[in-house]
Design brief:
2 domains, three-stranded antiparallel sheet, 14 strands, Arc Repressor Mutant, subunit A, alpha/beta, Rossmann fold, single chain, disordered N terminus, 9 helices
Length: 239
């Protein structure tokens, strides 16, 4: 975490709370922050400029980004428990897009895991870099599950890195279902770290259609790396 204690005398309670909120979220829009702290957007911009000058966060594309570490993405276990009702609703909508005989890609997001749990045992090929998705599908005999290898990340329950990204490029799929750190209609889908962004971008290049699974907690946020523009998406599914 950022060392906020060293500047407590200079920062008011709101500024310290802003840093804590940004560190927890990874990234969050200026508008969203202004609403949460009940201040004007201009006041929030001024606060964020002061915090950026002190090296406590970074501003980018109308959002504030955490500097708590190189990898600010939340662990899979934490993400899996958040917005569960919303992710279940999104999964049911996504299942309706899938037909017997399809080949689909699922990223290592918790939203894709909820989709995997909702899949019926039907003739289907699923390509994924997620160990959690693979484990979820192992008992469904009619679903062929193909996983990519690479460096395993316990934090994300997924295979990441150059080897995994290279292997993805050898596959093709009708539909990619994936999620993100944040989504802004004007700028697109964003990710918080390079490892997850690289493999999702490779999946986007290999799929005929791309479907973003995006619960409302991600709307209005950005991130460190843009995955794609809104025009690159065929569909956005939210609750």
């Amino acid at each position: 975490m950022n060392d906020v204690n060293g500047v407590n005398k200079e920062l008011g309670n709101r500024l310290r709370d802003i840093v804590n909120r940004v560190d927890h979220s990874g990234s969050i829009s200026v508008k969203n922050l202004a609403q949460q702290f009940d201040v004007s957007v201009e006041t929030m911009r001024r606060d964020l400029r002061a915090l950026e000058e002190k090296g406590l966060l970074r501003r980018q594309h109308g959002s504030a980004l955490s500097l708590a570490g190189d990898d600010v993405g939340l662990a899979f276990g934490q993400r899996a428990d958040e917005q569960a009702t919303e992710k279940n609703a999104i999964a049911q909508k996504a299942v309706s897009m899938i037909r017997a005989g399809d080949t689909i890609m699922l990223d290592a997001s918790s939203s894709s895991w909820y989709l995997a749990k909702a899949l019926p045992d039907m003739k289907l090929t699923v390509i994924t870099n997620s160990m959690r998705v693979a484990f979820e599908l192992v008992s469904r005999s009619r679903i062929k599950t193909l996983t990519v290898g690479g460096e395993y990340s316990e934090k994300y329950g997924a295979f990441l890195g150059p080897l995994a990204t290279a292997q993805v490029s050898h596959f093709g799929a009708e539909i990619l279902f994936f999620s993100c750190t944040g989504f802004q209609e004007e700028s697109g889908a964003w990710e918080s770290n390079e490892a997850n962004a690289a493999i999702k971008q490779a999946m986007l290049r290999c799929a005929g259609r791309s479907v973003l699974l995006c619960d409302s907690s991600k709307v209005g946020k950005s991130g460190l790396i843009r995955l794609c523009r809104t025009d690159d998406l065929d569909r956005v599914i939210s609750e």
